[in-house]
Amino acid sequence: MKERILAVDIFRGLTIALMILVNTPGTWAAVYPPLRHAEWHGYTPTDLVFPFFLFIVGTSIVFAYRNKTANSKTYRKIVIRTLKLIGLGLFLGAFTLEFPFFKDFAEIRFPGVLQRIGVVFFFAALLYLHFRKKGLIVITAAILIGYWLWMAYLPLDGAAPSLERVANNWANYIDVNLFGSHTYKPDYDPEGLLSTLPSIATSLLGIFTGLLLVSKRDDKLKVMLLMGVIMLIVGTLWGMVFPINKALWTSSFVLVTAGWANLVLGLIYYLTDMRGIRFGSIFSKVGANAITVYFLSSFIAKLFYLIRVNEDHGVHSWLFDTIYVHDGVPLEFSSLLYGLSVTGFYLFLGWWMYRKGIFIKV
């Protein structure tokens, strides 16, 4: 029988809520610094959100596949889910209101959040099915160290590589030359190809936490918090030579964000699964349809930008300017209120779907 860990469900739903919040401010021109991504090196609370989701993908893999065998049926389910995630991501990037409702091919962005989730899930699930814990540790270490050596020391066009946002950055170089115009920015993509490799390690670190949670150990919380502290320390120290950077998903970034994920998940685990405190139940319900809620929030937000109310406003800006912008109220605060309102709506939607027994598996 599968043991249900409430903290995992709450963490997943909370992460989705934060993803929606940071993606839907009233205006990008006025956002509080903690709700912005770091310009390049370094990290903000917002930079923790996506790695938190990839981390909990790994943790959830343990619960979903610990009693599965590596056979054609299991592989088929993994492949189908991967293709669904990638397909939904490509749809979001390609959709437009102009007939035939898809952008010109040259304008479509190939990488993306859902695409990365799909690829990371695919490899993390297969690795979990085929390797024991020691093997996964070796693979994770090899990914993180190998990525560091590649990015920081492997010559590019005969010259030393850079970790800045420049042409001789390996991640940027590969994305520009492989994807061409199909990237988020002309010179790089935060969900690019090479940086997807260490993001798999993020999910593998989540698998280790999942293995801990399903174990029979009595000191789960202590070990989880200890792992979090160690990852934070090692990641911070590593960041002195391999800067913490979300756009490049550096190895130091992997460790620091996984460290925070363990600490946050450990706190939730202590409050809910150990102390029995009723906390965050709405997030656990949203987590039951996490990808569906995230996809709907992204798709509707895009519609709100595309649908015009008049010559000066789309639905998004009209709602923001009409309801949230007032004299004497800081624009950043109005922008935050808009984001909180949108997030609240999707929390309610996730709760309603759960209550109605609507579970859309992606």
TrEMBL record:
<keyword id="KW-0472">Membrane</keyword>
<feature type="transmembrane region" description="Helical">
    <location>
        <begin position="48"/>
        <end position="65"/>
    </location>
</feature>
<feature type="transmembrane region" description="Helical">
    <location>
        <begin position="282"/>
        <end position="307"/>
    </location>
</feature>
<keyword id="KW-0812">Transmembrane</keyword>
<feature type="transmembrane region" description="Helical">
    <location>
        <begin position="85"/>
        <end position="102"/>
    </location>
</feature>
<keyword id="KW-1133">Transmembrane helix</keyword>
<keyword id="KW-0012">Acyltransferase</keyword>
<feature type="transmembrane region" description="Helical">
    <location>
        <begin position="193"/>
        <end position="214"/>
    </location>
</feature>
<dbReference type="Pfam" id="PF07786">
    <property type="entry name" value="HGSNAT_cat"/>
</dbReference>
<feature type="transmembrane region" description="Helical">
    <location>
        <begin position="108"/>
        <end position="129"/>
    </location>
</feature>
<dbReference type="GO" id="GO:0016746">
    <property type="term" value="F:acyltransferase activity"/>
</dbReference>
<protein>
    <submittedName>
        <fullName>Predicted acyltransferase</fullName>
    </submittedName>
</protein>
<keyword id="KW-0808">Transferase</keyword>
<feature type="transmembrane region" description="Helical">
    <location>
        <begin position="336"/>
        <end position="354"/>
    </location>
</feature>
<feature type="transmembrane region" description="Helical">
    <location>
        <begin position="136"/>
        <end position="156"/>
    </location>
</feature>
<feature type="transmembrane region" description="Helical">
    <location>
        <begin position="221"/>
        <end position="241"/>
    </location>
</feature>
<dbReference type="InterPro" id="IPR012429">
    <property type="entry name" value="HGSNAT_cat"/>
</dbReference>
<feature type="transmembrane region" description="Helical">
    <location>
        <begin position="247"/>
        <end position="270"/>
    </location>
</feature>
<feature type="domain" description="Heparan-alpha-glucosaminide N-acetyltransferase catalytic">
    <location>
        <begin position="4"/>
        <end position="224"/>
    </location>
</feature>
